[in-house]
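Supplementary Methods S3. Input chains for the assembly prediction are listed below.
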Amino acid sequence: MIGYLGDVAALARKDLRLELRARDTLPAMLLFVLATLVVFHFALPADAGDDPAYGLLWVALVFTSLLGLARAWVPEREAGALDGLVLAPIDRSAIWLGKTIASLAFLAAAEVVAIPAFVLFFAPLDAHALAGVVLASVGICAVGSLVSAMAAASRGREVLLPLIFLPLAIPIVVGGVGATISEEPGKFLAFLGLYDAVFAILSWAAFEYVVTE
Amino acid sequence: MTKKPSLTVLASLAAALAALAVALIFFVAPEDADQGLSQKIFYVHVPIALTAYACFGLAAWKAFRLLTTRGERYDLESYSGVHQGTIFGALTLVTGSIWAKASWGVWWTWSSNQLVLFLVLFLFYCAYFMLRYSIEQGPRRERISAVYALFGVALVPVSFLAIRLASDFIHPTVFTRDGPQMTGKMFTAFCVSWAAITLLAYVMYRVELAGKRTDANLRELREALVS
Amino acid sequence: MSSSEKYVAAAYGVFLVFVLFWVVIIAAKLSRLERETGELARLARARVAGEPSDG
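Predicted structure tokens for the full assembly:
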């Protein structure tokens, strides 16, 4: 167990270090989410009220995470390292967990910019909304790491990832928007927790089948 | 290798049941008091939807078998299951849309949870084909397709729950349709129709599977002969 | 025909048309399979006929 967690930590650290050095994914995500929020301002009619803006926040988060997820496996692919990792004497699911944690770190960094920007541009967010963001981010990265690996194995990968990811992201959007605007956010947060549990376990178990030749 | 029931027998049975179903639906089952004649669409729409779920379930089961036993045959079986499920899923959407127009005057409504669920599933399983055909043929493709099919069945209950939750606040205009208070004759007609459609789907599944297997065998033969 | 009758007919009709369309696709596939097995049988026959003269 310690060895497993050690492997996971090492893998996540590697991704974070690579990003800190190369700095190509995170700045893009930050700029993208800000640009999207500005576009939304122009997309919403003047008397729209707060609710549509809250909905659009979730659209912005999902699409920004797609940007990050598209690049999730690129370092491994470019260096031909994924085969090496798969052959290494580590549990393949540790690769998934390491990647999920790293993606989560990037997404969280983007959210640290996006959430205050949203509050500034549009409307306030309460504790339930923030809890929703946290839970949703976990779900997005858990499913996204697996799905991104699937897309990476294919020819049309940039185009394929959104197609595969979006239907799976629909429940996350429902949970997130509900946590933000509903009068009973508790049930939506519980639902997000359920989604995270179900799909994290599935992704954790299924990852090895996606990566091995 | 388990002996599969003869396809001819099954197809004949499906045809007989379909004939019986039509007779029961249009000549025996009484007309619904509230909805009138358009309620008859229920006898074809709901079995189609249930059959689509069954096909996706079958595909997921075969996918599970592929991942746990590495049996060769499961890949094509799972793929055929997804294909049939998608066909019947599309049919569910179309018949559901017609029923919505007949009942409520609109071709689409977000308040019908089942229709929305099928839309999400339809998107999901269409992506299955895009994914499958952008990967080189081989064990990798089989395994990725299998994992995707398994995610599909996990998505069904989760999406259903999501859509139920979403309807609370997102779409206030609710169309209701009083669930048919089914009399004995209506229930019989429904069951026969359901049996006929399920059997038809299974026959279609087996025919498609035979076609795909033959394709694969021919490819092997060609490689052997041309070399 | 009243409008409800039209919709009922449309629903059942769509089902029938889908299934018939599927039949068309399967028929096309079967013709292709027939053609390909014919070609392969020809190749096999040629191979068998050529064998006696091989070493």
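DSSP finds nine helices and no strands in chain A. The radius of gyration of chain A is 17 Å.
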